[in-house]
Amino acid sequence: MTEDQIKAMVERFLAWKLPADFSPDGGISFKAEFNENTDHPMRHEPTGTNLLNYTQAEAMVRHMIAAA
How far apart are CA 39 and CA 21, in angstroms? Predict the structure, then answer.
């Protein structure tokens, strides 16, 4: 796997829209709905993850492909 392929995988991972049933573990909380009792209820629709930064996501991708 080339460096460009790894970079593309990391960038795609960090840009991925999280599924509607996203439910993190490990004590992390996520409340999708907000402003419920106002005239402007909204929903957070995050992409990627705030659990990993770019360098950490790259390390994860490298770990994944090392087993291949």
Answer: 25
